[in-house]
Fold these 4 entries.
Entry 1:
Amino acid sequence: MSGGGITPTSAICLHRTTHEAHTFPLGDLVCIAEFGEPIYPTLKPIDSVCNAPDSDLWHTLIEADNYHALQLLEYLYAGKVDCIYIDPPYNTGARDWKYNNDYVDSNDAYRHSKWLSFMEKRLKLAKRLLNPKDSVLIVTIDEKEYLHLGCLLEEMFPEAHIQMVSIVINPNGVARDHEMYRLEEYAFFIYKGDAGPAMLADPLFTSDVAARKMGKAAEDECSHSQRTSVRWERLLRGGSNSNRSHSPGCFYPVYIDPIKRKIVEIGEAIGKEQDKESIPDKDGLVTIWPISEGRGEEKVWRTTPSNLRSLVQSGYAKVGAYNKNKDRWSLLYLGSKQRERIEDGQLAIIGRDENGVVIVEEAEEQVIKKFPKTIWNRQSHSAGEYGSRLIRAIIPGRDFSFPKSLYAVRDTLKTIVANKPNALIVDFFAGSGTTLHAVNLLNAEDGGHRRCILVTNNEVSEAEAKDLTKKGYKPGDPEWEKLGIARYVTWPRTVCSIEGHDINGNPLKGNYIGSDIPMADGFKSNCTYFKIAFLDKTEVALGRQFREILPILWMKSGCVGACPDMASPTPSVSLSADISPSLSIREGRGDNPYLFFPANHFAVLFDEASFSTFQWELHEQPQIQTVFLVTDYEVNYRAMKSKLHVQTTYQLYRDYLDNFRINHGRNER
């Protein structure tokens, strides 16, 4: 529609080709950009979860059409992604969550070609995200489209090596009319550059029972070898049952020597009513209480004073890292599983440090590691048991059809990033959020620092869409949006899995399969939830949208620390010395010639005339390695860049505007 006229309550629109006039309520009109037109995206913060305030590891969830999100991600991370894992629509014709299956009607004679066109547009963008020297794209699929997908991947990635793995996701099988029972689905692995699978102790081939008989597993339902890195656990208890009131016998002081980094003495537990301030400090020692990192709540240690004394005497407890910014020490110990591994000979004590703490490594008779096989048969890969039921346990009453098993995704990622503890992983068909859950679990198991970016839309099921429409609601209304997949499933699951409880606040039960990690402990990680929005390029060019594009600068700098919020400046924002910190709504930066974000490791220069002062202050903050320089002139940008000794610089706002103006056309080629 185009042309026509507008009244205070309605609009008359003319069809572009027939010029037929139609009248619509003004509130029903939505501004759009045609497919292929340049867009200028930004990220609007919606929510965040922080369960590790001392960690700079922040994941991101982006609510958006994944095509537009991929355009944004290309600007942020072109050639920098280590692994892309996607579980796209299988094109089965199912009409539950549109995101999963219902892309093309099952009766459409052109459903395969339409699906391939849909996938091709997104894979072209995804390809440009991957590190050409060493990265992997993983695409799961079932029998409906695996042949067509395989041909498409061969055509799009002629330079890559491709393998297909069969994964048993339903051990009981699915009955089909006049067909054999189907047990498996498939995963294509596209290896770019020097990429290849990691060597694992468990080839993922034999059944769980057979694997246990072979001595390759210690857990009841998983064959993952426990002969991995030694895991020192935090002495501070996490989870919903960690408050002082739950275990008063585990609330006591620990005294350490900060110079020798040694546990010197362990006090006795104090009563429920006794104030910890009544317990005197000891000369020359630092007193550590079980206090939460975020809100300063009184928590408890994982063991009693007498047990901790025994652990210290045995060398199984030690002083951990010191956080200078928060003036906090951490305490670590070897949990029961790790001590059992020492007793069983799986771990060997090869010495002790100056404080008597054991130095432990894997015993010499390690399990031989091999490349995984191309048929995976695991009970823990069952989508029903460890996909659907797991989601129902975390978010009761919120069903999601066809979720992946958490452990199937964990193992799939592990085959690629086991040796990449700092990998960047992207999933732009995020669904229920299994990929981020799996990344957090993998990090918890091996001490990794992998970062995950999820992208999902916020569609509702077809039945819910019809019901909401009958009630007079439309997309964008709160009543509609709250039932969308991102807000109804993906984000609640992310928050609950990180914090270790269900949506009702009850602690999650049991341990994660293949590890000794209680679900109720959650994960020491953080995540920010954004929704994609779009800006006017003229407003950006005039510098009037800095506040709006700040989350993009944060992501482009590596998502270090919590995303800064210019609406209410925090100590993480360092302003120039004699400039008022007030921020105008129009420009988002006030009259400041530059801003430093030391906690986020980046800085922005707005006024070229202040470059000398900016350069001097930047020298005093070596943690800042990304700088955005606002200038319209390429020669000025290059001159300033040559004088800054940082890893990366960008020219604002030209870098942002040119990317989306130039690249939009080639996204269709």
Entry 2:
Amino acid sequence: MTPGTLLEVKNLKITFGQNEVVHAINFSMARGEKLALVGESGSGKTITALSLLGLALNADTTGQALFETRDLLSMPEPALRALRGRDIAMIFQEPMTALNPLMTIGDQISEVLELKIGLSKEQCAKVAIQLIADTGIDNPQRRAQAYPHQLSGGQRQRAMIAMALACQPKLLLADEPTTALDVTLRGQILDLLNQAQKKNGMAVLMITHDLNLVRRFADRVIVMESGHIVEQGLVADVFANPQHPYTRRLIESKPTRNLEATEPATEPVAVLHAQSLQITYAIPRAGLKGWFSHAEFVAVHPSDFKLYKGKTLGIIGESGSGKSSLALAALGLLPAKGELTVMTAAWGANTASDRALRKTIQVVFQDPFSSLSPRLTLEEIVGEGLLVHEPGLSRSERRVRVVDVLKEVGLGDDADADAQSEDWSQWLQRYPHEFSGGQRQRIAIARALIVKPEILVLDEPTSALDVTIQQQVLQLLQRLQRQHGLSYLLITHDVDVIRAMAHDIMVMKEGRFVESGPALSLLGDPKHEYTRTLLSSA
């Protein structure tokens, strides 16, 4: 190893059975360096990072990974276990599943301090509170006693960072640390990592598919495709002059606006209309009063808005702004005060009218993997709506409708050769886990479209997808809107998605609409300070 080098990976190969997923890659990291490992899902970036700590289960790993002259890949498990958390720490992609739901945040941080440094329980508790405070979580003493589900997404991510930084590691592996966060929270997390990196002089290996994050954070970038390193270099050089076609495709895969054909030629017709819409939640009162009555939390203050036929109304704001509550009310899944009409009907009139409305307005959720039943086949998932809304169809007629809508959403366009075949009978018997993320989102769209709705509620439809798949899904949604005159209520925190999809925009903050207007004029000349902050953070 050359002087100043912290990590040197040589000829790393990772194999599962007969399938080699990482092919003899080589790279190095200097002390205090910020290196980004970029690529789409399946490129091998996460499994590469996991292999360094011996966390790639059931994988056969060969080559060398020299960390301060010690080979991580040949290190015995007890020595590797001592290294984890102390010299090399990791921030996992999804804090809700990575954190222990049965332990408080303070106890989880204290556990690291006790095991790795040997502090007493009193010292651990004190240092844990200080670490929580250092990551910018408000009221750290109270938060230390909270469980993961009692914290927001941004707070959980900060808690994971506090745990990773507890022992001041020399190398931090950060696996998609900002993927599910709002733009402002992303910026805050990046600033926090930058501060920690400078304070401790640690090196950071960032695993991500977010190119904006790479531009803002990293010194160097490595681009991976199908287990190969196809390009690496300084961030400024690679982004200014990418050499490999795959790198160019990643950089160019930005949501593009193509809405001219979707502009209605006639007088706009409102298909979703809200007047003085207010959404509240009951919360317990403090003290003795809590035994007899509840307080009221206002998630959405009285608001008016209209969604017009064939157009997209984008609602943008941070977590906790009320976006999701608004979407649930529009779907009739959350009681609300005021008036809310879908086409010309209101929710809750009676069971029959509500069922008819459910055919009119459908939803595409943020995470297709968790929103698709793992126990149902592709045919059952997509055709389920027909059993409710068109029960007179025979099984063969339902199958024809299912295949037609799957073809319409382009399922198979980005798949293997077997997906291009006309033998749909076998393909229809697959389960969600047998499809890629982009394919699962197409399935979710097909499930919504099969009952021929007028309105789709799109709840963060691309936030869990790679940049190239995001672009494909947005182009699909634009095409379907043009062909069918669909109206979209788009809920997102992604400014690029709003810019590509929305005709009109409403900006939410703490349950109120602070600004609204046509998309291009609002994005080009925002009036409210909060809107300007959102746009600058993006």
Entry 3:
Amino acid sequence: MSTTLNSPTSKTPVSGAGRLATTTPSPAAANAAAASFAGLTAKLDYLPATDLDQVRMAYRFADQAHLGQIRNSGEPYITHPIAVAAQCAEWKLDAQALMAALLHDAMEDCGVTKIELIERFGSPVAELVDGLTKLDKLHFNTREENQAESFRKMLLAMARDVRVILIKLADRTHNMRTLSEAPREKWVRIASETLDIYAPIAHRLGLNQTYRELQNLAFRHLRPWRYAILSKAVAKARSRRRDLIQKVQREVEATFANNGMKVKISGREKTLYSIYKKMDEKHLSFAQVTDIYGLRVLAPSVIDCYTALGLLHQLFKPVPGRFKDHIAIGKVNGYQSLHTTLVGPAGINVEFQIRTEAMNVVAESGVAAHWLYKANNPNGASPSDRMGSKWLQSLLDIQDENRDAAEFWDHVKVDLFPDAVYVVTPKSQIMALPRGATVVDFAYAIHSNVGDKTQGARINGEQAPLRTELKNGDVIEIVTANDATPNPAWLGFVRTARARSKIRHHLKTLALADSENLGEKMLAQALRAEGIDKAPDEIGKNKAIWEKLLRFSGNRNRAELFADIGMGKRIASIVAKRLRALLTDSGATLDAVLLTRERYAMNETEAQGGIMLDGSENASVSYAHCCRPVPGDGIVGYLGRGEGLIVHADDCAVARKLKHKDSERFIGVEWSDEPVRTFETEIRVTVINGKGVLARVAAALAAAEADITHIDMDDEGGQDATVLGFLIAVRDRNQLETALRNLRKTASVLKAQRANGTE
């Protein structure tokens, strides 16, 4: 900038500030003057007077907050926020964004709190500053290309408002412009980060001018010697080819004039970094890079763009394979243009870009174009008459509908990364997961062993439930335990196919082992009823017996047969009868005493030697929901087809019906003396409607040490009484009866009983 006005409101009494008033200012003082608020004011003519006052108030607050702070160049620190705001003003951002630009370092460097910013400047500005502060705390530790891409995406995803990214890019641009003042040892790190992270973000968002500038500034500080050599070579080539380019431009202008087309033609030059990159990737010398210079044609409409293309192809011969139509097929960031390379005079290739004025706004300013458009066309005609980009048009429509920058940014991000969330491991590795992914998904993404042993998690240093959905930028630490195993309930909330597959595989393996153990017990019980104390070992002459039995059952081995019995695919009594026949054929004798005792017991109400249940049976045994038995209830076991063993209360109506139809599938079961867990059962409580009733009922259950796992309530309103349904977890029938007695003594409770009507 050429302006040298001083800030009339600056309060920064620091060494170096006084040099602003000298007759021959130092470079640092000149830069400070150029970044003064007076110079910024000249760029804010698009703002209403009230907004301008708000921006000035933010400047004064920032000036006071940074009082006494000096940049490496010797300038007052306030020059940096002003320069950032000036860049945002070039994009015609709104007053809130400009205020946030001026205040962006206040929280990080000056100890200003978010509450203070909310009180002074409102919540939207405070949220923008807070978002910028969070981005500043992220550190990119590795140089791997895939990590750089993930980091870029995470930065974009973390910003809930597009203005945060724009201000951040303006901040990085000014820091790169003044990087020469920083210590030399910081150049490589900052320049590499700019080249890997921030320049691609600018390109992704369509901020072409910022993208080119960041690339060149990073190249200048990352490879100073190569930059200097290439800069001299381009300067020499520019002087040699100036006449040639000017000749081409005159011929093109004459052709358009003769055909009655009003177009704007300007020259464009390839950036030093893009020249260097092309030379490096394609192993070219500088003389072999032929598209350093080109011309840009701005036409009135899309039809005129294609007409201009035809005229150019008639004037000069096009280079085969060098034509691209980015109007018909626009880039994801909204960029649209026709590209063609023509063979000019003296055989020099000249690249042409043909686009409309509106496309040029998008090409240079990307997502900032909708603010530029509003500023330049506040009362203009429909944007669809001018904008060639459907992508930009949809953004303009959103902005016109509700002026919501957050929704605008969400729409942009649909194109950038539709279904991703980016999170960080404690070792700063970035992982991409589907949107909606949970802590368990993250654990399995690290390793299946980590997922299987997951016991808890900390997100950003705080304890969090395993079903917590992850947000962009979350730092996640998984807590594991050697005795932890996957929970079937995880299948209800995991999002990734990997996690779902691993959980199912583990549960299936676990269920198979449980079913095998259960099947072995059931076969042993059935064999005792046949007069055989236990299943014979698979050795000696018994090996042939087992081979015959497995052929009969269709199983490959004993383990598979036991598992099938446990899962109900084979009936233990039938297998036992077949095994008895095979044993007697081989000359084995039956135990007459055991046979008599077991068959007598089968006719008694209580089976002797039944399968003992203590609640540790996992997937192989389930407890019927129709009656929900608890220890102390009389029980029977039903071997469902492929469902394993289902335990019913012996007075359950469903069990009685099954016994009538399928009596051979019932086996003897009994409770262990010391169950290892609690069991759910259902109770119904009729209460008089009134305040605090539910609290009193819950207190009565808590007094009995019964845990409430679920509550149901009648939908009918306006009634004097209501029936509440509770699922409660109890140790045994005694604890259940204590809970029911407590409820019956509670005020407002009319009736309390088990759901199946048992008192």
Entry 4:
Amino acid sequence: MQKVHDLFSWKKYWAHRLGPAPVLPMSRAEMDELGWDSCDVILVTGDAYVDHASFGMALIGRVLEAQGFRVGIIAQPDWRNTRDFMKLGRPNLYFGVTGGNMDSMVNRYTSERRVRTNDAYTPGGEGGKRPDRCVIVYTQRCRQAYKGVPVIIGGIEASLRRIAHYDYWSEKVRRSVLLDSKADMLIYGNAERQIVEITHRMARGEKLDQIIDVRGSAFIRRKVPDDWWEMDSTELDQPGRIDPPVDPYLEPGIDGKECKTALADDGEKVIKLIKKGKAPRERTVIRLPSYEQVKLDPVLYAHASRLLHMETNPGNARALVQRHGNQELWLNPPPVPLTTREMDAIYDLPYTRQPHPSYGDERIPAYEMIRFSVPIMRGCFGGCTFCSITEHEGRIIQNRSEDSVIREIEAIRDTVPGFTGVISDLGGPTANMYRLACKDPKIEAACRKPSCVYPNVCQNLKTDHKPLINLYQRARKLSGIKKILIASGLRYDLAVRSPEYVRELVTHHVGGYLKIAPEHTESGPLSKMMKPGIGTYDRFKKMFDKFSREAGKEQYLIPYFIAAHPGTTDEDMMNLALWLKQNGFRADQVQAFLPSPMATASAMYYSGKNPLRKITRRSESVYIPQGKRQRQLHKAFLRYHDANNWPLLREALRKMGRADLIGNGKKHLVPAWQPKGTGEKVEGRRIAPKAKKKITAKRFLTQHTGLPRVPKLRKKKPSSSRRYRQA
């Protein structure tokens, strides 16, 4: 891996003499109090401004401030005009735009595309304070407010939409957000290293369009430079021929024979030169299928997704290029991970750890969740296909030192209002990957595996949890600390390899319940998720129960599962529901699969192919549960105990030939009866329960006292002959 400039070794910009701001300014009045006539950088975000390292814009702002730059924040501006975008004046260097800590579409819509009524990153939890696709909208408003000012986009929304991507909400493949927003540059992944270098170089007089060599950045160029070796992605992973046999990488408007010959010649030439060592990896670019091609062909989309994920290791990744119309989208290799020293310096910056004073006493739900938590690491090598952490933060774990974590705990104890002695979490993307890494840095730099723990834990992965145990023990012994809880997602397949860690966790750091995510019980969907089998969960549960008993505590595991994930059949969900009932679990909230941009599972959802394996026209197809009706059914299986779901489940079980699961016994999944006032629409008609008979005094006595039912006495009708005689 190449050597890089240390994050805090740059010569500071002249404005560092003004000192750090109590909070980064959000108004002109605050700038005046600081003695600023202008801002060097203005950051625009879709979240409320909380001066805490868990909020991306606060962290980036404080990092740039530490470099000597004057940074202003525009949080959740009114996007309907340019007024809010002009309130801090014209930035000297650039606007930095992000959608916030979540993709704006994920933030606003549920997995069923229903509008959410709340927003955890907004004061008061109020929804609707940011526009859909807000990176695009904010960038356009910045352009309108101050023409000629460069705009750099980043954050998770930009990072996960950096190439042509499937968009679940519009159900189509969209262009890179860099083109749709018309920004000057896109920064993907954790942005500290890129943004610091770019800002310093711009401050020294370089134009942004001249800064094209920064790792972790993307930009537009007209053509591939002559001094670069171009390699087509088909040489790495051949997707197969299309019937009729037309070159799948043929660009519109180019003669087919000429293009195909040139493509083959160039590809063979590059491969031969690479094998001979004459084409340097750092000067080789891989051409992905164009936007126009992946938009029309789902198989090529899956192929492009696979290649993108193969080129995410900073130790061996090459540049990527993807044509959009007559423009070339260029992606430099991912950024080099931060060192422990750099991580410590970032988290030691003077955050107030509180919302901006302008919000007053308004509650910001996301802040309430994290204000007593401490991040100890970044990254994840789990590679779960439905998750985008690896695509954003990388799979190499970046760790803070033990001393840095302890300092932050003490700062929370001494400065954060409302602290009661309980740290709500020590973690990050995962709870127990702290200081876990490959045994050999050379192997790590050459590896292309998407996961270090699937299908089994890699033999080269160090799984020693001793550093994490030491951190837990030191933290819980601090004066004024009553409890250290662990709330981040636990990789139980790693935890079972360290019984000492499970003992420490269960004995001291569980508040009665521990949430973990097996996600499913069946091998079909688990193989598409890259998650371990349910047997690993069973082994962890035995350890959890054993150590809970030894500690004299009554504690429980709360497992989480996903409905309607690619590869999940109705039978898979039925078996999961049976497992839940047998184990006595009743899920209150159900998570349905949401195809987030750039996730591997999203490529499965759109293409019906499995990008975890080589993509061809005849390669493995993935079963995709689609349509509102089937997604509802999969969610209903997870909530088999909800009477409102019983009509839907009964209908499905009969169609599946499993009517034997309908009944009132313990082995049945759903009962045959339906309580009054429950039920739902099935195939357009409402399934209403039978109306109960009116409760009379006699029926009440019969049902609630156990007395035998008294037969109703009926007066005998006279015979016809008797009626005649009476007449």
